[in-house]
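Per reviewer request, we include the raw input and output of the structure prediction for the construct analysed in the revised manuscript.
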Amino acid sequence: MQQRFPKLLILLALGIFLYTRLTTDVILYYINERFVLLTLLAAVGLLLLGLSYYRLPHPDHDHGHDHTMRWWGLVIVALPAILGLMVPPQPLGAGAMGNRDVSALASVPVPSDRDAMGLPPGERNILDWLIAFQRQQNPAAFDGDEANVIGFVFRNNLFAADTFMISRYIISCCVADATPIGLIVQWPETAALPDDQWVQVKGTFAVGTFNNMEIPILRATSITAVAPPAQPYLYR
């Protein structure tokens, strides 16, 4: 039982760690929502496996270096829970965009189950608008279209004093394949917006120039600071 007890604790800790991330929706900071059920099954499996070390007779055998290797294995297995508790959970934001190429008209994959052009303009998110821009190459076609989108503030040296990008990340599987996307926003009070602040932007599109390209630019009529949504990423 002496050797089984650490294994029991680590497996239970991992199972509880995953379960708490699921119940608080924090798991969506890391993975696509379609993998939530698999994560729940993994949490239940870890809990059951941990309890099995308590319920079932497992004789312990110590054989020199095997004992050392066993402890190293326990430490490695425990690392996800240790790091998860040490690092506050938060979605990817502007800080992760610093060393990436930023494009005002990023080419994005079109989800097979989503018809961006069929959505009312006021219901489109950032990904929907970019899909619509891809399908209609004339930027003037969107003049006067109203938008109501949520994302975080991003700026670098490409942006004029009154412009910024309202951004989100799109993911396929998890944050390892995350890609930043965004819309260019024009707003006279841009300087007052902190980088990485989540905002809701309402306004209308008009043709403008960004980085020597003519594109639809969202001229904001109102900008409101908001909390990050429960699902911070958009899915492709």
